[in-house]
Amino acid sequence: MTKTIIVTGGAGFIGSNFIFYMIDKHPDYRFICLDKLTYAGNLSTLTPIMDKPNFRFVKADICDRTAVFNLFEEEKPDVVVNFAAESHVDRSIENPGVFLETNIMGTAVMMDACRKYGIERYHQVSTDEVYGDLPIDKPELLFTEMTPIHTSSPYSASKASADLLVLAYHRTFGVPITISRCSNNYGPYQFPEKLIPLMIANALNDKSLPVYGEGLNVRDWLYVDDHCKAIDLIIHNGRVGEVYNIGGHNEMRNIDIVKLICGALGKPESLITYVTDRKGHDMRYAIDPTKIHNELGWLPETNFADGIKLTIDWYVNNRPWWQEIISGDYQYYYERMYGNR
Ligand code: NAD
Ligand code: TDX
């Protein structure tokens, strides 16, 4: 049966990949992308689908109650997938306010709209960072859905707050929700402030590669399409009220990723510069995806060797996409963040 799906934050990294994946997989569905187009949103990313009859782009802020309610009234969505967020930990350390506004208050507005107009499913895209971090020397420890919330940064605290609010709206008002908590994503269209695209862009420009601390922090990397497939499964078959962890058992140290990028691009490792560590830097993330595997049959399909090659090739072949970004306001961000580090 056909559905109308509102995707918030669909002009960003994962949201745009999700829309591409879904519009291909469910050509009979209607998709509405609601995005404020912050520094992280890029309308040009959506050019290939902009003229499709089953796609509509709406520039709006999820905190704007009137705009969100009007859109619900007009479109009567069956499903909402909320990707819209401030997503970069370093920016949340510099300026927490907008994280609280968008990630918490914006989610509250989305929940109120679902409550008022009714919804078949509201899906909240959350993160493994809500669980805090794990020690490096206990590799057997993984985040499960039962791991207590224990946040480190204003970003993760805001995402955890949103999760709690979503669960509260389910329990108190019966809003049919699901939540997914995914590990670090990588792939095409990721804003070059995040580790992998930043290192690729800098290496291609023969700029120094700023590794925080000693580069020993571990992240559990997942190719973005695998995340999109998991969300598709959850919104169709996931149990209402449930949280699903998403991750592919692919733990890597930051320094090893940066060296791999140097090798793949034929750049010298002497570009690597160790810089002052991130405040409150989480040591290790690692997801236990048993629940989503057992209940929904999800397994990651892209291994890291293939995924990182696809990603590096994409950045090599799509220079205008990221060069335009790094020639604008991004320069001021880069100077503030890395200038005296
Ligand atoms: P992103 O920063 O690339 O994109 C965020 C998008 O949201 C942008 O298009 C931006 O314009 C939009 N947006 C921001 N504030 C808005 C507002 N107030 N109203 C409407 N739109 C707004 O982020 P991403 O990396 O694609 O992450 C998407 C979601 O997935 C986030 O909720 C994030 O917390 C979560 N997540 C990300 C990762 C990751 O590795 N990137 C991992 C797990 C979870
Ligand atoms: O210049 C850098 N140097 C560096 O050493 C940058 C940008 C990052 N790092 C380190 C910090 C982290 O240990 O690399 C690791 C990854 O950093 P990010 O790409 O900023 O990601 P992270 O902080 O792990 O958060 C990401 O994963 C969870 C996303 O940005 C979040 O939105 C998601 O929720």
Structure description:
With 341 residues, the protein is α/β, with parallel strands linked by helices. It has one domain: Rossmann fold, CATH 3.40.50.720. 43% of the residues lie in helices and 16% in strands. The protein is built from 12 helices and 13 strands. The strands form 4 sheets. Strands 3-2-1-4-5-6-11 form a 7-stranded parallel beta sheet, sandwiched between helices. A two-stranded parallel ribbon has the order 7-10. Helix 5 (154-173) links the parallel strand 5 (121-127) and strand 6. Helix 1 (13-25) packs across helix 7 (224-237). The longest helix is centred in the first third of the chain and has 21 residues, at 97-117. The N and C termini lie far apart (54 Å). The model has no long low-confidence stretch (mean pLDDT 97). Residues 8-9, 11-15, 35-38, 40-41, 61-63, 83-87, 102, 106, 125, 127, 159, 182, 184-185, 191 line the site of nicotinamide-adenine-dinucleotide (NAD).
List the helices and strands and how they pair.
Layout: E1 4-8, H1 13-25, E2 30-35, E3 55-59, H2 65-75, E4 79-82, H3 89-94, H4 97-117, E5 121-127, H5 154-173, E6 177-182, E7 185-186, H6 195-204, E8 209-212, E9 218-220, E10 222-223, H7 224-237, E11 243-246, E12 251-253, H8 254-265, E13 272-275, H9 290-296, H10 304-317, H11 319-326, H12 330-338
Helix pairs in contact: 1-7, 2-4, 4-5, 6-8, 6-10
Bound molecules: nicotinamide-adenine-dinucleotide and thymidine-5'-diphospho-beta-D-xylose.
Residues 87-89, 127, 129, 184, 194-195, 198, 210-212, 217, 219, 254, 278 line the site of thymidine-5'-diphospho-beta-D-xylose.
